[in-house]
Amino acid sequence: MAYTTTATTKGGRDGRAVLDEGKLALAMALPKEMGGSGEGHNPEQLFALGWSSCFGQAILLLAKKHGLDGQAAKVTVSIGIDKDATSFGLKADIKLAIPGAEKDKLEALLKDAHEICPYSKATRGNIPVTLSVA
């Protein structure tokens, strides 16, 4: 295993989440849209942060192969949560932008990055994901 991190939460969506290394501790709160106070963070926000960062690293690794400047890339991940017939489910939208890049090159890079990003691998076939370029 190259790396492992551990987090502990007490109080669920209205509790406190702490990394065991002590480098990050967050007050958690149910979003206002879901009936909560919105006065803290929520798992969907943290998931979006992690996925966008991880996906951005995949872009950096693959950009040169596609003749693009990975350092100029902006990756935006939106995570949605909604209730279905039995429970709640997630969905994701991933958008890639590189100023001045050709659309076909961006789309090819986006698809390649989605194949190697660990977050993309972990969610593949489990949640709907929409890929787009800007």
Write the topology of this structure.
Blueprint: E1 7-10, E2 16-19, E3 25-27, H1 43-62, E4 74-83, E5 88-97, H2 103-116, H3 118-123, E6 129-133
Parallel strand pairs: 5-6
Antiparallel strand pairs: 1-2, 2-3, 4-5
Helix pairs in contact: 1-2
Explain what the structure shows.
Helix 1 packs across helix 2. This protein is α+β, with helices and mostly antiparallel strands and 134 residues long. The strands form two sheets. It has a three-stranded antiparallel sheet, with no helix packed on it. The model has no long low-confidence stretch (mean pLDDT 96). The chain folds into two domains: 41 residues, N-terminal domain of TfIIb (Single Sheet); 91 residues, K homology (KH) domain (GMP Synthetase, Chain A, domain 3, 2-Layer Sandwich), CATH 3.30.300. Helices cover 30% and strands 27% of the residues.
Q: Keywords for this structure?
A:
134 residues, GMP Synthetase, Chain A, domain 3, 2 domains, three-stranded antiparallel sheet, three-stranded mixed sheet, 3 helices, OsmC/Ohrsf
Short description:
This protein is of the alpha+beta class and 134 residues long. 30% of the residues lie in helices and 27% in strands.
Domains counted in the coordinates: how many? 2
| CATH homology superfamily name of the largest domain | K homology (KH) domain
Q: What Rg do the Cα atoms give?
A: 17 Å
- Order of helices and strands, N to C? EEEHEEHHE
Q: What's the story with the biggest beta sheet?
A: 3 strands, antiparallel
What global shape is seen?
globular
Distance N to C terminus: 36 Å
CATH class of the largest domain: Alpha Beta
Number of helices: 3
Q: What percentage of residues falls in helices of 4 or more residues?
A: 25-40%
Which segments are poorly predicted (pLDDT under 50) over 5 or more consecutive residues?
Answer: none
Number of distinct beta strands? 6
Mean pLDDT: 96
